[in-house]
Amino acid sequence: MLELRPNCECCDKDLPPESREAMICTFECTFCADCVDGVLQGRCPNCGGEFTRRPVRPTAMLAKYPASVKRVLKAEGCAPQRAA
Questions:
Q1: Measured between alpha carbons, how far is 80 from 62 in angstroms, rounded to an integer?
Q2: Sequence-separated (6 or more) residues with CB below 8 Å from residue 13
Q3: What is the SS3 assignment for 62?
Q4: Torsions phi, psi for 10 (to 5 deg)
Q5: Which CATH number applies to 1-62?
Q6: pLDDT tens by residue, 16-43
Q7: Distance CA 34, CA 43 (A)
Q8: Which residues contact residue 4 at a Cβ distance below 8 angstroms, ignoring those fewer than 6 apart?
Q9: How far apart are CA 32 and CA 68, in angstroms?
Q10: Smallest Cα–Cα separation from 24: which of 76, 83, 68?
Q11: Please, what's the b/e burial string for 27-61 (b: 16 or more CB within 10 A of its CB; e: otherwise)?
Q12: For position 81, what pLDDT does the model report?
């Protein structure tokens, strides 16, 4: 089950469970659409993977399966993933 992390790891923007701006990679690294498109150029700085829009969990299911409240922020900032 997805954690639905509450913020962008790059700029710390709030990304509530209903946000359509939240983008995730296959490891659930979570970033806002602005950082994915601009700073990260579509590649995860943690794993090099691609992003997709995070699905929105139905409101009725949030009570039973709440979103994460643990904020993750890259202390060193984020930069585009370099090609190997």
A1: 33
A2: 7, 21, 32, 34, 35
A3: helix
A4: -90, -55
A5: 3.30.40
A6: 999 999 999 999 999 999 999 999 999 9
A7: 13
A8: 17, 22, 54, 57, 67, 68
A9: 16
A10: 68
A11: eebbbbbebbeebbeebbbeeeeebeebeebeeee
A12: 59
